[in-house]
């Protein structure tokens, strides 16, 4: 059965699997202290244009959000996100589990408005009782967002500027960073991201890896004893070299971005077909997630042949469904889907 | 200078102070294991009409909210409140500090709508991804609310009914319970509260005590080893008998409600004067907190002679101010305030 | 019935109660922002000989330990105490509840050996795997200890020196500080304590107050946004002025130390009688806690007339019992006890 | 260079890698809801002889310990381990991070004595102040232990019996379970383990997997909403099927135990050679970890050609070193090591 359900249904890009298999021919020391990991970090630093960046590999996205947010947010403070942000909705309270409140402002097709961020902080500090409240301590956005939308360089810089005004680091969740940066007409590069964000992660799980996310601290701002904090969160992989091997492969010959681009091209073709066939896109978004508002008969018909993702009920008779492409989507799969539409 | 700033500016009712002084003539065992505490608990059980209720005394409101919510909410779950609820806004993240997300629904002049509570839970369980989300685990309301409004018996019962449908206990924060239950025309008694809520507290700090809140578990539902949980939260008072002495005094000869009524009567007189003088009440509320939308010249004039509470900016030229009476407000103070208005 | 069970069985010294009653004649703003609290802080700063010290009032001992330790100990670190330390044994896991491991070294009649502290830290940093372990982050001792013993000035300084070598603050729990500093032959003053410790607290609960502990940060080292951290722990008293009133009284005319001395004098008399009558003191300790190893018939005989504290079984036929005097112990009570012995 | 440093230096058994590569030919749904995971669980249930056991796959050992211990231990309680237990020493405070105290009793070459466990609990409940203390809430042991020793069936049953007497579940950390169960002369099978323990895990990371641990709840005792708790801990792997594929391979044709046996056989040969050559084994232990007390010249000589693991300083001139074999150790590597000894 055809599936456009999500972007983590296939194990890994063949080059990644080969890198892991090749690693099997050697013995490595544990916990990421090996040379393969070092090599992967060096390649990422180079790709970021930041020879001094500090790179760490973790296993998964929620884990990465929890570890980063807990360690960059002061104990008296919370993390600000738009209400639709992944840590606010789909991480089972992982942030609160580590003791921090998630502070929310409205989203606009998944995006944060820097003016609203500023307003939120201004209101906080203007409140005579602010010492009885949770301080704004860090800012979280994702690139791309939960809605598949992306920030332009100027937009992200504006958010960073506001964050810094209130002495907060900006953390960018890049679970789908590859897809965000390879959109047709994107004005942002990995170097831009590294310049703007205080810390971000390059998602591997959804872009070709078996698993793995690469955290990049770009401003000599790694939390003290970060390895111990990772361990404390139960997030330190014994065979760190398995992460190193994967990211080494992904950052060799630009593989990460090449395969990411594939997802966007597939999505572009599907979007075109949807428009041509009169479907209602819930909103415009340029990356690998397409949200379509469909009536039930259409859904029933499609789901006989293709797995789609449920997002939410739009009204009594319509539902927002997600069509998600990935690095692994083939032209044939796109052809088949378009035919079915 | 006259003050209507809040309801915790004066130490304690004279009878409470006398009870503490009288306790000084005896030696008591520690941590609430004394006979004075037992006597106070018995009086509260009787006032609640629940011979089996389990009563505990803590020191303050945020502490009580933290201990109760943490212990009645499952580890995989959050606590639902209206967005204006005290634990969501003015407790510095005490709930999240103990690991639980605060889940919010809109408020209506501070009150929760049972239909919206139901909708929230229904939507949660209808979401295919709900296992990745924070479960609704308990419901928090306050009586009276942050806006001085109150729930009728039927309204509170409706909330309890929804909560129980989803297997959640209803916790009622009664920091100002005395004021809520003695409003002219209130249809709810302490017995009603004890029948409806699964756990609630009777606020002493704002109603005549030096400090102290009496938690009442009404359904044989005290969390296991609750004393240990209190201690773990750093909330167990060594000289528990000082709490016992105070609540014993407050629940002797109906003192608690008599002095609470005084605050409402004072507030009624002030509300009448405000209406007569053409002030704009921000909204109608019957208890000891009066919210008035004032322009800056009025505020400046009043604040020369009387301390009021700042609530929030209403617009560029108006501010919502709070006039707060208490058990200690004298008719003379009310007279003076009315003259100033 | 006579009681030497503990030092928190009587409400408060009359002067403290009067101060609270007097406070009742005024209106104060909340949360310790009042002038009475400010005045009490000034008196404590003066008594400490530290005009710049930062003073805070909390309600109880476990609460104070939890708030201070959580806020001075880095997130990747634990707090070091001797195994018999109160937070390790009798605080229901309050430190771990706030996320920190309690690291233990042996005690010697309740006291920490600076050489063993040094050895613990040296061993930690010598371990190749130390990044996988809990860092030593702060040092906790109490003065007097759980065993009623005290540190000399040189001993405490030696512990502070080791702590500082490893970049750890020294926190001194002074629940019984009054008793420790007024021992006959004590070589330490409150000024010495303020010079040596990075943060300590002056216990009120056990030395004349209804409740209350005064935290003193002596090195411009108050944790950032400490008020918010207190609130987050549920530990901020609404009527902070009730704490202010009490400590203002205790630090007027040296009352705190005068009444503390009474406990030691009473204990000295009892110790003398115990020696004279051939009792076996479990070990020598100069403060208000006397530990005596008794056989069961003796215990049975004494407990007909006087409440003592159980400490632990010494062997199959002997038990360690505690005789505890306090600021409130009268010469008559001591006479009666001696007669019974 | 030869390495006997640890048992997680090589990526994975070829059959495991093949299984992952084969998984790459299919699309799977996320978070362990796929058929491959289901198949692996079925094989483990069968190997355990428990058709009703509940099996879950996590990524790493500390993570598994944190998630299991946090979810099986009541909030008012701690987890009991011997002092040398991994969560007490080498998990960076992961248990305390989730709010629980680690309660310790002495170890005997890494093992727990059931009589001492009983004594600990008896003493706890006999203490008049036990409600102010951390309750014993769960028991943790590992099979094999940190010292490479193992429990016999009777010994483990005795610990389980004591645990159950005090209403505590017994959790067995099986990071090296394969090695423990395949020791020459072992009297325990996986079925025995499943019968005795309330919950245990089958370690994959150290026995042939890239990563992964299989938790088995054997008594219909899975914590409520366990998937949500896993997610909350940041421990839910998006591509759960990668875990499923590995354990499916490991539990096909008894692979897990076959490759585990290899490590023990290699260790047996090394032990024999050590004895023959007059080395001092620190203590006797039958599994894949050999602890040898060596003088510095010997260590210096060996480390020119082979990586060993440092354990601890024995005295000023001797050090305890660890020689660790694994599923991947070849006869040639053993030959080379023996020659060097």
From TrEMBL, chains A, B, C, D:
Organism per entry: Bifidobacterium breve DSM 20213 = JCM 1192
InterPro entries, A to Z: ArAA_b-elim_lyase/Thr_aldolase, PyrdxlP-dep_Trfase, PyrdxlP-dep_Trfase_major, PyrdxlP-dep_Trfase_small
The Aromatic amino acid beta-eliminating lyase/threonine aldolase domain, residue ranges: 14-295
Stated name of the protein: Beta-eliminating lyase
Highest taxon listed in the record's lineage: Bacteria
Keyword Lyase found: yes
Pfam families linked: Beta_elim_lyase (PF01212)
Keyword Lyase attributed: yes
Keywords: Lyase, Pyridoxal phosphate
GO function term, MF aspect, one: lyase activity
One GO BP: amino acid metabolic process
Cofactor: pyridoxal 5'-phosphate
Similarity section: Belongs to the threonine aldolase family.
């Amino acid at each position: 059965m055809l599936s456009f359900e999500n972007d983590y249904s296939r194990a890994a890009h063949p080059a990644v699997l080969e890198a892991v298999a090749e690693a099997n021919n050697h013995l490595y020391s544990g916990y990421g202290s090996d040379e393969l990991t070092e090599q992967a970090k060096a390649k990422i630093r180079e790709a970021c244009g930041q020879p001094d960046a500090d790179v760490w590999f973790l296993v998964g996205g929620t884990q990465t959000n929890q570890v980063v947010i807990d360690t960059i947010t002061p104990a008296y403070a919370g993390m600000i996100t738009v209400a639709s942000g992944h840590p606010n909705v789909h991480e089972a309270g992982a942030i609160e589990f580590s003791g921090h409140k998630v502070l929310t402002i409205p989203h606009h097709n998944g995006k944060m408005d820097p003016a609203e961020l500023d307003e939120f902080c201004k209101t906080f500090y203007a409140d005579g009782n602010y010492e009885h409240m949770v301080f704004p301590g860090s800012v979280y956005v994702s690139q791309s967002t939960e809605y598949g939308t992306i920030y332009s360089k100027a937009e992200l810089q504006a958010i960073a500027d506001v964050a810094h005004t209130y002495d907060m680091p900006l953390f960018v969740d890049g679970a789908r960073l590859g897809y965000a940066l390879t959109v047709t007409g994107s004005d942002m590069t990995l170097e831009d991201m590294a310049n703007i964000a205080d810390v971000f992660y390059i998602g591997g799980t959804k872009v070709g890896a078996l698993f793995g996310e690469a955290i990049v601290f770009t401003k000599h701002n790694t939390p003290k004893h970060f390895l111990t904090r990772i361990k404390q969160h139960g997030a330190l992989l014994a065979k760190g070299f398995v992460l190193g091997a994967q990211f080494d492969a992904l950052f060799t010959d630009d593989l990460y971005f090449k395969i990411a681009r594939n997802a966007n091209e597939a999505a572009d073709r599907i979007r075109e077909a949807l428009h041509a066939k009169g479907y209602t896109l819930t909103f415009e978004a340029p990356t690998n997630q397409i949200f379509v508002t469909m009536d039930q008969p259409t859904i029933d018909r499609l789901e006989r042949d293709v797995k789609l993702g449920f997002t939410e009920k739009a009204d009594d008779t319509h539902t927002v469904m997600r069509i998600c492409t990935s690095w692994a989507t083939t032209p044939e799969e796109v052809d088949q889907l378009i035919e079915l539409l």
